[in-house]
Amino acid sequence: GKAIGKLRTHNDAKISVKAKELVKKWKDDVVQAQKNSNGNSKTTSVSSSRASTPKSATPSRQSSLTTPTSNKSSPSSSQVSSPRTPSVEPTARTVKSDEVTFKSTGNSPRDRTIELMYASVGLGSGADSSLLLKRAIAIENELYAEYGDINQEYKNKARSLALNLKNKSNPGLRESVVSGELSVAKLCKMTVDQLASEEAKARDRKLAEEALFKARGATSAQAETDMFKCGKCGGRKCTYFQMQTRSADEPMTTFVTCVSCGNHWKFC
Hints:
The protein has about 270 residues and is of the alpha+beta class. The chain is about 55% helix and about 5% strand. Strands 1-2-3-4 form a four-stranded antiparallel β-sheet, with no helix packed on it.
């Protein structure tokens, strides 16, 4: 688990995404197993007793079958038929809930920012409250040093960091800040795109690549050829065009599309 956890911040986006998916699957499997172990025995006993009880059951017998405990343990039909694994909701942590106190800065907005950063980095974290508070204070100090005042830029940056740190689909960002893998100084200088999750970055890269394939410049006329072999269907009937996607001293990028199955790839 520790080895896979470290790979969630790997430089290779594919490795990072795979590691996060695996860790999430482990967590979901544990939650599902706990729910099954707690609910299956109760659900089975209630269902069997209902099936064996005749319609003319006495009121006392009927009332015993419809106790609040039975209702809570018996899932609805839609829940039983649904194959989806329930998502794990991260536990919220705040200065108030953790009963944390810190020395006031003497500035109410700055104190509220520290509390906001604490809740942001602490979401779903099992770290000690003293470490979370240390990171929250460091983030606020870095923001105040960067902007020099509680101005609009300070507020916008604080909100942006809070939203990205609290993003449920981006736990790697929170974990890397808490663990110290990502320094507070670097965090506060990151753009919105850099703060995005690896899944979002991979999606954006895929969309950009799709846009390149659809782009048609003045010199990007397509030609048909049999020089390339499709890795998906094995066909050789392809169209291709070339485009300068890097610096002028780099070779042009060739974009190939299979006529038979529509698969496309690129190479330099």
